[in-house]
Amino acid sequence: MPIDNLKTIYNLTMSKTLFDKIWEKHIVQQIEDGPSVLYIDKHLIHEVTSPQAFTGLNKRGIKVFRPKQIVATADHNVPTINQHLPIKEELSRLQVEALIKNCAEHKIELYGLGHPYQGIVHVIGPELGITQPGLTIVCGDSHTSTHGAFGAIAFGIGTSEVEMVMTTQCLLQSKPKLMRINIDGILNKGVVSKDIILYIISKISASGATGYAVEFAGTAIRNLSMEARMTICNMSIEMGARCGLIAPDETTFNYIKGKAFAPKGNDWDKKLSYWKTLFSDVNATFDKEIFIDANDIEPMITYGTNPGMGIGVTQTIPSLNEIDAKEKNSFQKSLHYMGLNAGENIKGKKIDYVFIGSCTNSRIEDLRMVASFVKGKQKSKDVEVWIVPGSRQVELQAQAEGIHTIFEQAGFQLRQPGCSACLGMNEDKIPAGKYCVSTSNRNFEGRQGPNARTFLASPLTAAVAAITGEVSDVREFLN
Questions:
Q1: Among the four 27, 126, 269, 313, which has the fewest Cβ within 10 Å?
Q2: Cα–Cα distance, 309 to 331 (Å, whole number)
Q3: What are phi and psi of 289, to 5 degrees?
């Protein structure tokens, strides 16, 4: 065989994807014809999915194996006003109290209410420099995929798996298939990262990436900030993916450097040297690859009850003739819940609430984006607007930059950190039958409160809806 052919075979054999490089480095044991025993670098916990795991440990008389690998915060069930007062909802209060007690008993650092680092678990990890390239990260929360924006393998786990990681710092995992989604080109005016991911999900469906780990690549991704990349990876779970990830680059390294838990001195140089090896090799192969032109994306909004039911803001809801026969019943049921009709133009639909927050869009960049648009404007008198920062640090930064004043003058309410109206588990619920334009990640039936109706959108689209009182095209209001 010619030597050039041998070189080609060797290169193809040795080429690896970003996912492969991280996965293989963390295999403790490969079970024959079975899953891998995977080492977990960071375990994030909160008040909702940890109590049962701690109970399991206590029943067996077992201590947490590596408490310093765990980061705990209170976020899902916390109130977002008057956090200095006792929590009113009994279940929420009991869960937060249990987290405090369990962390104290097992010597786990807790960023609870009142702590300067408190916030949504997927916001504080990156902003503190805890989230780093090349790590394996898990949490009892599906949107752990957020951390993949740093070139990490990050995914949600169930309560029994939370207990497994607490006791062994390992997890049994089968390797997923690999998909790469390439978005190339320049984004249009008024189009941001939330529109990118809503567009992708609308094209491949809410189950289109089931069984895959998805790497996002292409020039449009490379041109995004870290906070925008987090929005992309956050919602990879909404198309069924096991996780989403983006190869780290100078944008990543600059974001991490200097943060509270980022490597320092020689340790930084050593880590940086490793991080720069984390990319998919040129000849790496994927089980599936998708190519998207960024120019095709317009501001997006959902109309149904899963994130895949999305359209461009100027488009109409699909007609029944456009829907697959097997999906017509669920499609009609979804529209009935939303009070909408097939073929209807969603632009101009009156709304009642705007929620800007959640682990998808509650970072300082999101708040700056909204503030820059609404400065000097007034909200519609018929709309209630909740702005909920993702962390105490985001809240303080917004105050330092005068963003809170802009919101106050516009009639918006800047609340305190927490998951808030993303999931209706706390006091922040959208009333039944009311329409909410939300920057969160899910529009399931009852997700924001019993019978609440949710339109998922970007911070910019949410901001213009707050001003106009209806679903609007932000491009019509931009210079």
A1: 269
A2: 9
A3: -135, 135
